[in-house]
Design brief:
Two copies of one chain form a homodimer.
Chain A lengths: L5 E2 L4 H10 L2 E4 L6 E2 L2 E2 L3 H10 L3 E6 L6 H10 L9 E3 H13 L7 E5 L2 H9 L4 E3 L11 H8 L8 E6 L7 H12 L3 E4 L5 E4 L2 E4 L1 H12 L4 E2 L5 H11 L6 E5 L2 H10 L4 E5 L6 H5 L9 E3 L8
Parallel strand pairs in A: 1-16, 2-5, 2-14, 5-6, 7-8, 7-9, 9-10, 10-13, 14-15, 15-16
Antiparallel strand pairs in A: 3-4, 11-12
Chain lengths: 304, 304
């Protein structure tokens, strides 16, 4: 059992030592930098402090509907200065994983996408061929002919080697039928992330995990997930940034995704904030499955 | 461990004794009476034989998109003479369960339906108020306003007490969002059936279970299922037909749905046929979880 986390809020010497210990800080965004449309006071100044001390800041998000440049716009609109190179989202993580880790041989390496434009942008940026996605011809009801043509393969692209499922606001029966059929014929199964819910408007809506789970249930196959806490995402991040894991710290508000992601990735540190989902009581229980190394009440407490 | 089933094919005396033992025969349809669009030879004559010996025949199907009268048309189109009163489908089973077993007090007893017209017909026949279903205003993309109005409840009917999920060929993000929100606010969760796949065109397509599973994953709640092998369906059948379970026999081609349904319902008998999914090797294994009492190679072997 890991020890209880050290609280840094108000402990100036401990904060200084904490910051000195790491070269790289990985940030979850919602619940850490902001909540919904509300930027937490001191967020920008905290990032500036870390950068002024030579630290690398990386924003890691499971949001699969946005490309990095979409997400940069989101950060800018929230008033958080950043650059594309600091952003690591699950759509990009998926593209990197396909192009640099899976490396399926052509021609059977096309990707059937269930998801939105952010995934397409990132696949394109890695030169990966794909179909599905936002294709308007798939945004329709299934027809009697479709059943025959899907089952006999005439509606399928025989070069599909991967099904990638992310959050799709236009999910329908036809796309699920096609996704199933590709998987049943041997395509590899990837998911941008497995979060069953998406926080929005102070409530929850279906997340990317709610798009892939019918396919999991139909095929009995588990996808490789590219979002937190999957280590496939950590491998992708490390592949890109080439940092020393012992000198990196993951900062987040969720024990089961952010903190678990950092711990399983054997990062040198994990820091929880109490401005999101997680409460101190979650790690205080004797049987708490995940405990961060440190916590602060709010991110801006790192300013001392 | 149950003993191996007795093979009746070709055993005239045993068949005669088998038929004499039961008053009621419950039939699964696809894989027993027909396969796809192909009626097995001797099906009609076998049903006539049983009826001529005074037996009650009941057709039990997990198909949730059809009402009983829709299903009667299906039986007629296959050349199987029947009547509405002999048909028990999961949409009807769901309606019976809601009206005669759950009996939620008005006004908070409306049903939010995710599914097709068959469910609506059966709910209407039991006088149950509902919304959703085939409502064309829900067959559209989610809008930014929807997030707010779903989350704050202004788009919801406060009298919804039940979410009923069946096979919906028009499933979309909006319906899943509404279904989740009703469940999160305390509605009871029912599913017509939990089959993840639907056999069609000699392949598989998403079944009713693929519609409910995102809601299961989002809420952590398991629905009460009204299809085989759920005993809620057996209770509904018994509630309607008032038969002696010891004098009833379930006939089917699937061990995990049909035969399990009969065994868990403590029917006097279960008969497997080898014209569908199930093979003899499935129950011959030492660790076979389900063994029928009897089997025939094909249903028409009961004609002796």
């Amino acid at each position: 059992m890991a020890p209880l986390p050290k609280r840094l809020t108000g402990e100036l010497a401990a904060i200084d030592e904490f910051i000195d210990r790491f070269d790289v800080f990985l940030f979850d965004c919602d619940g850490v930098l902001w909540s919904g449309d509300h930027l937490f006071p001191g967020t920008v100044e905290t990032l500036e402090l870390l950068r002024s001390r030579g630290k690398k800041t990386i924003f890691v998000t499971n949001n699969s509907t946005k490309s990095r440049s979409d997400y940069l716009k989101k950060l800018s609109s929230m008033g958080v200065p950043s650059s594309v190179d600091e952003i690591f989202a699950s759509a990009y993580s998926s593209a990197i994983y396909i192009s640099r880790i899976m490396k399926l041989p052509a021609p059977k390496n096309k990707v059937f996408v269930i998801g939105e434009a952010g995934i397409e942008t990132e696949l394109r940026s890695e030169g990966i061929e794909f179909l599905g996605g936002t294709d308007p011809s798939l945004r329709r009801d299934i027809t009697p002919e479709d059943y025959t043509n899907i089952a006999n393969g005439s509606m399928l692209d025989e070069n599909v080697g991967i099904v990638l499922a992310g959050l799709d606001f236009h999910i329908n029966y036809l796309k699920l039928s096609l996704g199933y059929q590709y998987l049943a014929r041997g395509a590899k199964f990837l998911a941008t992330n497995l979060d069953s819910t998406l926080p929005s408007a102070h409530s929850f809506f279906p997340g990317a995990g709610s798009i892939s789970i019918p396919l999991i249930s139909m095929t009995g196959q588990q996808p490789i997930a590219l979002g937190k806490p999957s280590q496939a995402m950590m491998d992708s991040i490390e592949g890109k940034f080439q940092f020393d894991r012992k000198k990196a710290c993951m900062i987040g508000d969720r024990l089961d995704t952010d903190i678990k992601f950092g711990l399983e990735g054997k990062l040198g540190g994990t820091l929880a904030v109490l401005t999101g989902v997680c409460k101190a009581e979650h790690w205080e229980a004797d049987d708490a499955p995940v405990r961060p190394h440190y916590y602060v009440d709010k991110l801006s407490d790192l300013r001392g």
